[in-house]
What we know:
Blueprint: H1 5-23, E1 28-37, E2 42-45, E3 50-53, E4 61-63, E5 71-72, E6 84-94, E7 102-112, H2 120-123, E8 142-155, E9 158-171, E10 180-181, E11 190-193, E12 198-204, E13 219-231, H3 239-262
Antiparallel strand pairs: 1-6, 1-13, 2-3, 2-13, 3-4, 4-5, 6-7, 7-8, 8-9, 9-10, 9-11, 11-12, 12-13
Helix pairs in contact: 1-3
Amino acid sequence: MSVPLRKLLYLCxxxxxxxxxxxxxxxIEIVDITFQADDSGRFIERxxxxxxxxxxxxxxxxxxxxxxxxxxxxxxxxxxxxxxxxNAGTITLDxxxxxxxxxxxxxLGAEFDFNxxxxxxxxxxxxxxxxxxxxxxxxxxxxxxxxAMGTVSLFDGLVTSISFDADVxxxxxxxxxxxxxxxxxxxxxxxxxxSNGDFVLAVDDEEDAFGVPNFxxxxxxxxxxxxxxxxxxxxxxxxxxxxxxxxxxxxxxCSRKRNTQDLPAS
Length: 266
């Protein structure tokens, strides 16, 4: 008994969607996050008794104990983009947005790269070469985001509010075992975005890169400002899925045509 062509096509489509669903078992959405950091935002380097401030000119490090004094040493670009931290990272949402009316999705996780906007290779003592001394061991750091939680509210697919909290760790090369960690205490809260759009990035780990309290290159990130988010366009089928569907359908057509040709004439 031959199977109708239409039924074969339906079976092919169902099979391909089943494969795609199995490959992407959890449906997610991505929100791109942009920050506008306040001019008062600072990177603090206690080992050098210095700090860099977004709104301070000329750009570079200033003395912690003499904040209104002159620049320490030569100018360095600690904040390549000033306070414009465009596309600083992403937030992953649990589920698929309908993009119609009001809806709220839970946050699954997040990824950010703050070294792009607060340059460890320019500001950190770990990256500096002291006069007559050995070259700095570590420059650019990586950002680790953990324990991300909260919600994102949408209206017709536009982000209307974000409520987000997460722990942050900044990790320098060669010192991976001794990251600078937030712990939720005042001044060391990690990363948060309030429903009104305000954000706080506060990492002030009093231990240095060697895990020794209050000694060596103790560093801090202290920034506030505003945050905004953009929901990415709705996902489309992966090219591999589409190509597989076409290939399977073509195979079925050719196979059916061959089988029909091979039937004896009545």
